[in-house]
Specification:
Length: about 240
Amino acid sequence: MEQFFTKSDQIQNIIKGFNLTKTLFVSSIIIGEANIGKKSLARYLFPQARLVSGKNQKEVEAALEEHEELIITDFEKLNNQESLDFDNKRIIATANFIGNFTTIDNLFAFIYTMPSLKERPEDAAYIKEHFVKKAQHDLLLDEKVFDIAKIPMDLSNNSKSMKKAIYEYLMIHSMDKQHIEEAVYHYIMEHIGGNNAYKEHLELYEKPLIEAGLKKYGSQLQLSQVLGINRNTLRKKIHEHAID
């Protein structure tokens, strides 16, 4: 059975609304941004319902003929929505936006709006912890300990961008010298060329070295001593690499 966690009052009200009408043959639609858990919520509430995507018009039409209860995701992608017949059926649809409001209002008895993860900080924190555990398992990093608070929470595209940022962070922070050398090797193999390749690709090493040094020591003078280079040379390289 699909699991669904939420501390959001707005989503709790959506769940209550569905539970009150669960035994009735009425249709409902959940509207909200992409990757916020609309499909997961629908599957959690109706685990036995057939699920089809609005990306496939013929599959949806065939499913409507065969099933009385149906989950339709990506509803906004369906053509000729006004021709659909939901009589004596329980349709639970999800959509990223409302296209024709009149059509939606005619088809669905209940229209729910689901808040984004930016509006649900407790839900986002829970999902982040789940993704971190999954990423550690998938990347075979179960033995490593990461400070979850330091892992970025990119909610620009809700759970999709969050998951991507977490996997990238764990991959980068678990790389050893050999892995870094291999990554640089493959990058250079892909991009090397021209007449000034040495200088162009030297920044792969110099820029992060200087940025990390400045972050760690907070002083150009101290960093120049650590690097063993003249302070003026360091300033020149900071300017060359456009380091703030």
